[in-house]
Amino acid sequence: MNFKHLGQVSTLDELYEETYNDILDRPSMRELLPNQAHTRNAIGLYNVLKGVEAFGNYDVFMAYYPLLHEVTSALKQWYGYTHVEYRSLMVVKLLAGQEIAEHIDEGGIYNVAHRIHVPIYTNEECVFTIGGEEYRMAAGEIVEIDNTVPHSVKNGGADRVHLIMDVIGIHQNYNIKALKTPVPPQFYYEET
What we know:
With 192 residues, the chain is of the alpha+beta class. The chain has helices at 12-25, 58-62, 65-79, 185-189; strands spanning 3-8, 42-46, 83-94, 99-103, 114-121, 127-130, 133-135, 141-145, 151-154, 160-170.
């Protein structure tokens, strides 16, 4: 299955208020990551790339906590995980009328992680093609895609902003200090 609807977040209104200007006004990180074609549209990034400031400031990241808790709950319920480990988080803005050419994400984390999208701002004309099938994602949907098959995006008449995550499920107890995650440890202590 190339596309799974895992749920709907209820925290978008608060997120809009706290991050609207920051998200829509922030330029892409293309200049900071000239050799990272897959992140050319990223406007905020948490992952193993060093020297890249995530989301601009800690307060903006904190605005995503409620949304991440909802994603965590959805993944636990869907797969029966006891915990999840976030391996990467990024906010990606695809400008109106632009597209991301068909590609496959290969190697490393992609073979074991769940690739999760949560549209923050989107439009009816934004079409995601995965494995030859077309999908439209609604704002606030929690969607898992199989990014190891060919996928592409064509955007319509408005900028599209997605929160994208790579998440690994855990079925037993875990050591927070041992997690290879961009999420601050406090997040895991606060898990409900």
